[in-house]
Design goal:
Length: 156
């Protein structure tokens, strides 16, 4: 098994949501453990089979996992607020200003929730829904695409 095959296996484990995979063949043994106590990491150990004294497993790859999508039932009740344009996402009006919204804040229709800068124009983005901010999905000062999810809102 070469490094590319190991990396493909790590990606497969990340997408499948399995917490541990162990493969043993005549000349090696590989064990992939993921999401140790909530950390999105993979621990990969490969051990070469030796007839006499087998060496201790040697970690060869410790790669961050691809974010695992939350269970559909968990997010089914939330509304996704998406970007209406391409640009740079800002949570506040300036570096020394407070964020427009934070996790746990209650918002109403028409409230400014962020700014998206496009071609040197700072566009205030207003909420089209009322509810409570559950999650901010984009880092401050990050580029965003049209229709990219920005916030999760609980309408209840």
């Amino acid at each position: 098994m070469n490094l590319t095959e190991i990396q493909d296996l790590i990606k497969f484990v990340a997408k499948s949501g399995v917490s541990e995979v162990e493969i043993e063949q005549k000349d090696f043994k590989i064990c992939i453990k993921s999401e140790v106590k909530g950390k999105p990491e993979h621990q990969v150990y490969v051990q070469a089979a030796a007839p006499a004294a087998a060496p201790a497993p040697t970690p060869i790859v410790a790669a961050p996992a691809a974010p695992v999508a939350a269970a559909p039932a968990e997010d089914a009740n939330y509304i996704i607020v998406k970007s209406p344009m391409i640009g740079t996402f800002y949570r506040s009006a300036g570096p020394d200003k407070p964020s427009f919204v934070n996790i746990g804040d209650t918002i109403a229709k028409g409230d400014t929730i962020c700014i998206i800068e496009a071609m040197k124009l700072f566009n205030e983005i207003e909420s089209e829904v009322a509810g409570r901010i559950v999650k901010v999905l984009v880092d401050d000062a990050s580029p965003v695409e049209y229709d990219q999810p920005l916030f999760l809102v609980d309408p209840a």
